[in-house]
Amino acid sequence: MNTQKRNTIKDLDSISDSQIVEMALNNVNAYKHIIDRYESKLLRYIQRVLYISKEDAEDILQEVFIKAYRNINGYDKGYSFSSWIYRIAHNEAISFLRKKRITVTNTEKEDIFDKISSDEDVESAFLKDLKSREVRDILSKLETKYREVLVLRYFEEMSYNEISDVLHISSGTVASLINRGKEKFKILVQNYGKNI
Q1: Average pLDDT for residues 171-196, to the nearest whole number?
Q2: What is the C-alpha to C-alpha distance for residues 15 and 27, in angstroms, rounded to an integer?
Q3: How many distinct structural domains can be found in the chain?
Q4: Domain range for residue 17?
């Protein structure tokens, strides 16, 4: 990679989302910087929430970027851009579920136990023993509304306010869903045949 290209990438890392949005509004070619910044994050998010193949997740992601591009003039600067684009991804994921009426399946291995246990009251002895596949199995059994807030909180490391912006629900509702989700998660863990 040449020095000029490295400097451009480094410079983009120091530019805020709102500055990149302004650039994209003035120059259609600057939209690629939004894609570069959010592509891997949103793909991961879609796969974690839906448990679908990478190809299906990439199709959804393409729709997310098309919709974001078409609606970028309507982006409300009262929200963070991150919350705005995650909201579009959320809507596309829900739309995909409605269209396909799919059942949740495992497609990748992830480990969320350490994150949940470090922030909350889940017994670490059990959590450390379980493999990623088992975690995914348990998460896949949660209702979408609980799985989604847990993924946003523990995988995407969003604050309650950011989750509130993405899902268009109050921070109190976010807290409630996370607490209920963790309780349901614990029950599923207990029913998984292990001692907590």
Answers
A1: 83
A2: 16
A3: 2
A4: 3-100
